[in-house]
């Protein structure tokens, strides 16, 4: 059999990768998982999700009476959910690793909880209670963040979906909110952001998962192939993680700008003017690490946005849904 220089080089690279994986995985230092809080709000989320009933995913198609019946029938789930939101939360990663088959069902139930909160918010909007609706939507954002704490990548992806349910409804509601509601909502969003689940936490949980499976199967080839096949999905997941953060910071910035405009009867020349009285700090773009881009318009308008996953300022052109993503992230961007 003839061995070409190229095939020999490919074989050598794969061999080196396998050796490296064996050495790294065998000696990988995986920090001990933090102890689970007692009581753990995550357990309340699980119990709340198991108790959900009715046409929750179809809430947007329900009329007023049907929404009222749905919320009434799920009063216990909402009660348990909010008990969990008031507690410290951490996903039990050891249970997820040893009972991986149960995790999708558990996470699907949590997404229904976010939809239930959105249904509650919609009912409150129909009752002309925009401030109360905003609290329902903010709770959906908080749920997505808290359920992700300590969890695997799949947990974070569902958490992102839950947050998106909340922030999309909140972005649509924002024009109907009063100045006082804006102030309250900015404080709530800033509090969530201050206790944000970081991407480093997600990566650490995934390392624990890889280490666990390597110890179970001791198959470096499978580990290398798995890493190769999932690396693009991980990159996309990180972009989605940063996108949801950008959206929520943009909503907080937009509401702070409206409060400023209401008080001063003008728009600020820069976002620095919001700091202290309207925002605790300058809103940072998670993609650039710098301040969000802000353009005041002549008169009473403005444009504020994130550069998005491509890191390029496109002048406020909304990002498309395709990958790789091109364009900027605005408050109302669907991506």
How many domains make up the 3D coordinates? 2
Order of helices and strands: HHHHHHHHHHHEE
Q: pLDDT average, as an integer?
A: 87
Largest sheet: 2 strands, antiparallel
Instruction: Show unreliable segments.
Output: 18-26
| Helix segment tally | 11
What does this structure look like?
This protein is mainly α and 335 residues long. α3 crosses α6, α6 runs antiparallel to α7 (130-148) and α6 (103-126) packs parallel to α8 (153-173). It has helices at 5-27, 41-51, 64-73, 75-85, 93-98, 103-126, 130-148, 153-173, 179-194, 199-217, 220-264, and strands at residues 293-296, 302-305. 37% of the residues are buried. The chain has a two-stranded antiparallel sheet. 61% of the residues lie in helices and 2% in strands. It contains 11 helices and 2 strands. It is globular, with a radius of gyration of 23 Å. The model is unreliable at 18-26 (pLDDT under 50).
Labels describing this entry:
335 residues; mainly alpha; Glycoprotein, Type 4 Pilin; 2 domains; 2 strands; 61% helix
Write a short abstract of this structure:
With 335 residues, the chain is an all-alpha fold. The protein folds into 2 domains: 36-196; 219-335, Glycoprotein, Type 4 Pilin, CATH 3.30.700.
Give a topology summary.
Elements: H1 5-27, H2 41-51, H3 64-73, H4 75-85, H5 93-98, H6 103-126, H7 130-148, H8 153-173, H9 179-194, H10 199-217, H11 220-264, E1 293-296, E2 302-305
Antiparallel strand pairs: 1-2
Helix pairs in contact: 1-11, 2-4, 2-6, 3-6, 6-7, 6-8, 7-8, 7-9, 8-11, 9-11
């Amino acid at each position: 059999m003839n061995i070409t220089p190229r095939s020999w080089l490919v074989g050598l690279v794969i061999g080196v990768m396998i050796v490296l994986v064996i050495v790294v995985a065998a000696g990988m230092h995986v920090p001990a998982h933090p102890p689970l809080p007692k009581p753990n709000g995550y357990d309340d989320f699980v119990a709340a999700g198991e108790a959900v009933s009715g046409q929750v995913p179809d809430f947007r198609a329900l009329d007023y009476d049907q929404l009222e019946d749905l919320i009434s029938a799920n009063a216990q789930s909402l009660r348990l959910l909010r008990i969990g939101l008031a507690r410290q939360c951490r996903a039990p990663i050891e249970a997820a690793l040893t009972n991986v088959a149960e995790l999708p069902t558990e996470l699907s139930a949590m997404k229904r909880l976010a939809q239930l909160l959105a249904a509650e918010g919609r009912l409150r909007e129909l009752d002309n209670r925009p401030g109360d609706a905003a609290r329902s939507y903010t709770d959906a954002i908080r749920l997505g963040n808290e359920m992700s704490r300590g969890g695997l990548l799949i947990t974070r992806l569902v958490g992102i979906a839950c947050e998106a349910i909340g922030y999309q409804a909140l972005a649509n509601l924002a024009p109907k909110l009063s100045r006082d509601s804006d102030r309250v909502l900015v404080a709530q969003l800033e509090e969530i952001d201050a206790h944000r689940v970081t991407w480093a936490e997600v990566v650490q949980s995934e390392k624990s998962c890889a280490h666990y499976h390597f110890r179970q199967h001791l198959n470096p080839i499978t580990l290398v192939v798995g890493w190769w096949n999932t690396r693009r999905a991980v990159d996309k997941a990180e972009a989605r993680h940063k996108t949801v953060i950008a959206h929520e910071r943009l909503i907080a910035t937009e509401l702070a700008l409206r409060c400023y405009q209401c008080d001063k009867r003008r728009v600020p020349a820069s976002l620095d003017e919001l700091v202290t009285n309207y925002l605790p700090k300058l809103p940072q773009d998670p993609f650039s690490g710098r301040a969000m881009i802000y353009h005041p318009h002549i008169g009473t308008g403005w444009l504020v946005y994130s550069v998005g996953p491509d890191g390029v300022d496109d002048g406020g052109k909304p990002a498309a849904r395709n990958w790789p993503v091109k364009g900027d992230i605005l408050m109302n961007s669907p991506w």
